[in-house]
Amino acid sequence: MAVYSVHAPRLKAGGTETDPARIAFVRDGFHFWAFVFGPIWMLFRRLWLVLLLYVVLVAALGVLLFFAHAGDLVRGIVVFCIALLVGLEAGNLRRWTLERRKWRSLGFVVGANRDAAERRFFSTWLNTPRAAAAPPPADNAAWPRPAGAHPGVADEDIVGLFPQPRGTR
């Protein structure tokens, strides 16, 4: 079973609903094609800033290894480690890019493959009524006190994970 994070683009001005065709599913875990063809994978996924940072990092490491007179074995190990890191972090790099583009996260879904995850997400998403989000209250006075909180005890008098009012047990 794979875990996917679900992302939707920001709503257009005056828009109230997300276009289901534009929703992106990003799988967690190792991405083989990002490991094997890192820069090409980044171009294909339109990760322009990630690609630029990758090129700068590889160039800087190449110059550093050149001036350090590193052998071919060391250079090969460094290239392998960078490729492995890209393969392991590919999902996070894609999520980071979506966040920079102001996409919003709709949650997570688990499925045997992407199609199963999409079916599972859309079956739940389409059947869930989506009301407009209420604005947060202006101050903390509107928030209810936790169950069991003593009305005469101020919040700053409570210390620890399981507070007891005035030390009573």
Characterise the protein shown here.
- The chain has five helices and three strands, in the order ββααααβα.
- By secondary structure, it is α+β, with helices and mostly antiparallel strands.
- It has a three-stranded antiparallel β-sheet with strand order 2-1-3.
- It is elongated.
Please supply descriptive tags for the structure shown above.
single chain; 169 residues; alpha+beta; three-stranded antiparallel β-sheet; 5 helices
Give the topology, please.
Layout: E1 2-8, E2 24-27, H1 32-36, H2 38-44, H3 48-67, H4 72-100, E3 104-111, H5 114-127
Antiparallel strand pairs: 1-2, 1-3
Helix pairs in contact: 3-4
Tell me roughly what share of residues is in helical segments: 40-55%
N→C terminal distance: 46 Å
Radius of gyration: 24 Å
Counted up, domains total 1
Low-confidence blocks of residues: none
The beta-strand count equals 3
Major beta-sheet overview: 3 strands, antiparallel
Strand line-up across the major sheet? 2-1-3
Instruction: Return the structural class.
Output: alpha+beta
The helix tally amounts to: 5
Summarize the structure.
By secondary structure, the chain is of the alpha+beta class.
